[in-house]
Amino acid sequence: MTNMSPSPHDYRRLHLPASYRRELEALLRKHVPGCEVWAYGSRINGQSHDGSDLDLVLRTPTCDRVPTQAFVAFIEALEESNIPILVQPHDWAALPESFHHEIERDYVILVKGDGC
User: Fold this and answer.
1) Which CATH superfamily is domain 11-111 in?
2) Does the pLDDT at position 9 exceed 70?
3) Looking at the whole model, is its pTM more than 0.90?
4) Quick one: DSSP state of residue 6?
5) What confidence category does residue 48 fall into, taking pLDDT thresholds of 50, 70 and 90?
6) Which of 34, 40, 41, 62 has an alpha carbon within 20 to 30 A of 96's alpha carbon?
7) Where are the domains of the chain?
8) Are 20 and 56 contacting, i.e. CB atoms less than 8 angstroms apart?
9) pLDDT tens figures, 28-42
10) What are the strands of the beta sheet with 36-40, ordered from one edge?
11) Do 21 and 11 meet the contact criterion of CB atoms below 8 Å apart?
12) Roughly how many angstroms between the first and final C-alpha of the chain, as a whole number?
């Protein structure tokens, strides 16, 4: 029996209205260009509800930290956006390696980039 993991490239697994996804993708490309962005947690594993937050992790091409100014600008843009859910962005380089393994078990690539 083969263990078929869900494809990280199938963004349809992300439970987020298309209009919010497009707005979010535009903000990511504007404020943190070059980062690959993964969604993980309840909004991709089928456990979400209307009030669930959206967990994101941003990965730079070198796996170094996302520049602080860009990260802060992205958070501010989220707060000013029309996206009515809580979006929780995290910097891959700032997370413990044990959490990397948890995220890697089930995620969806929201924005393909030059991530490490």
Assistant:
1) Beta Polymerase, domain 2 (3.30.460.10)
2) no
3) no
4) P
5) confident
6) 34
7) 11-111
8) no
9) 999 999 999 999 999
10) 87-91, 54-59, 36-40, 107-111
11) yes
12) 31
